Amino acid sequence: MKKIFAILAIAALGTSAAQAQTQVAPTDTAQARLQMQQQRTADAKATLASQKDQATASSSAVADTKAQLRQQKAQLKEQEVAAKEARRQEKIAKQALRDEKKRTRAAKQATKA
């Protein structure tokens, strides 16, 4: 009877130890899954932050390029205005020269007559 009792006690202890191990394993697996999920989350956050930085840099570059284009457009407009004024001044000078030539011819004809 003592032998049977001892065998049953050992079997019960062995069974409870096996159950304890099977219960520990799921906890370890759950912990491992949790850690893996946390790592994936951290990686995704880092990737998102990197993408946001790239988007910000890209937006900044676009804004800089647009500002440069506006500045170049303004300079071109100034140059066009200056060229137009130069053409106007040249036209006035040519007209003054023609008028002077007319007066000179008229004066020559007046002295001949």
UniProtKB/TrEMBL annotation:
Superkingdom, natural source: Bacteria
Composition bias, Basic and acidic residues: 87-102
Keywords annotated in UniProt: Signal
Range of residues in the leader sequence: 1-20
Name of the protein described by the UniProt record: Uncharacterized protein
Biased composition (Polar residues): 48-62
Region (Disordered): 43-66, 87-113
Organism in which the protein naturally occurs: Hymenobacter nitidus
